[in-house]
């Protein structure tokens, strides 16, 4: 067919709550593979699965949490956002309970209150994504 | 690299206005290529361009309009939404002035007031997309 487009990925802003519905923070990972650094959990969408299914699967694989998608935050598609190749990411805000455990592409998991996130250590355009989330968070989630 | 993901496309809900800022309707096209039928204008994202750039380019190519993007409506990624292969589409609401002229993959252009759109003739999941647009239109555009 000759069609070539960027890769499609999904990333999750996972808002972690305790059983009393108290907000604990956002789940971030330390990446096992280059580019090394701190990132939102996420991964590529498989052919044959929706972005929402890919998001739920990737969150289970990387941080061992069952997430509920709240809403789409945005689509991030700057050709330079991923240093490896051109990736378009659909970013979803979601909610989860429990303890994240790193697995698959994640070496470690962290839970950061939004204002304590080490923005300078974030890879890709994830600092921008988190800023966008912070700017819209109190409007509609 | 072994990564295979769905194709990435963009579609536009182009709200057409006259010079007095009166809303005329939504621009739809009759497709030149299969699947034949009525559709939102749109197309594939090239490697190296953002979704927003692809949207502006495709609207210029297919309906000969310079559009201003208002906001992202959503990401549509059901594996069955495109009968040809799996395509993930980022759909943007935009605004334009002037007269649409069909070109490239579009055989004809139409401007329909939203409540006169022939929903049964729409291909892909474009009827669902337009319903989603109608449901959110009066909230935030």
Automatic annotation (TrEMBL), chains A, B:
Kindly give the SUPFAM superfamilies that the UniProt entry links to this protein: Nudix
Ranges where the Nudix hydrolase domain occurs: 6-136
Could you give a GO molecular-function term held by this entry?
hydrolase activity
Which InterPro entries does the UniProt entry name for this protein? NUDIX_hydrolase-like_dom_sf, NUDIX_hydrolase_dom
Name the domain of life this protein comes from.
Bacteria
Under Pfam families, the record lists: NUDIX
Hydrolase found in the keyword field:
yes
List keywords of the entry alphabetically. Answer: Hydrolase
Could you tell me which CDD domains the record lists for this protein?
NUDIX_NadM_like
What Gene3D superfamilies would the database entry show? Nucleoside Triphosphate Pyrophosphohydrolase
Asked if the keyword Signal belongs to this entry, the reply reads no
Name of the protein in its database record: NUDIX hydrolase
User: What is the originating organism of this protein?
Assistant: Sulfurovum riftiae
Higher taxonomy:
Bacteria, Pseudomonadati, Campylobacterota, Epsilonproteobacteria, Campylobacterales
